[in-house]
Amino acid sequence: MQFLGRDRWWTLSKGLTIPQERIAAVSVLPLAQAKKECSWLRLPGTHWPGRIQAGSYGLGDKRQLWCVRRGPEVLVIDLHGRPYSRVVVEIPNPTEMAKKVNAQRA
Q1: How many CB atoms lie within 10 A of CB 65?
Q2: N or C: which end of the chain has fewer CB within 10 A?
Q3: From CA 84, how far away is CA 100, in angstroms rounded?
Q4: Max Cα distance, the chain (Å)
């Protein structure tokens, strides 16, 4: 997963490669629910209420990587190990992507 253009700047990250064995679960959540499960601690990252949440949030085993704007639903990838326990991204069709990734894992 690569962040390009402005997303790269907002997240302060080039992105990351996620090996299949690190993926614990892939799902689609409403943005509001995903935000409830995110730490308020931003290290480093961007948060502009109602506009964008991007970058690293939380510490240690609860650290998450976000790149989300205002979409109603987001793709959530729960991971084993570090540096991130969860990756939350806004993509055009999160349900379709979740189905593809889960099919590959099966």
Answers
A1: 25
A2: C
A3: 21
A4: 37
Contact predicate 59/43, CB 8 Å: yes
Residue 91 has a pLDDT of 94
Task: Tell me whether strands 52-57 and 42-48 are parallel, antiparallel or unpaired.
Answer: antiparallel
In the chain, the number of structural domains is 1
For 45, 51, 72, the CA distances from 85, given in Å and listed in that order, are 16, 24, 22
Quote the domain boundaries for residue 98: 5-105
Q: What is the pLDDT of residue 1?
A: 78
Separation CA 27–CA 88 (nearest Å): 10
Q: Which pLDDT score is estimated for 8?
A: 80
Query: 3-class secondary structure for the chain?
Result: CECCHHHHHHHCCCECCCCHHHEEEEEEEEHHHHHHCCCCCEEEEEEECCCEEEEEECCHHHCEEEEECCCCEEEEEEECCCCCCEEEECCCCHHHHHHHHHHHHC
Is it true that the peptide bond before 83 is cis, omega within 30 degrees of 0?
yes
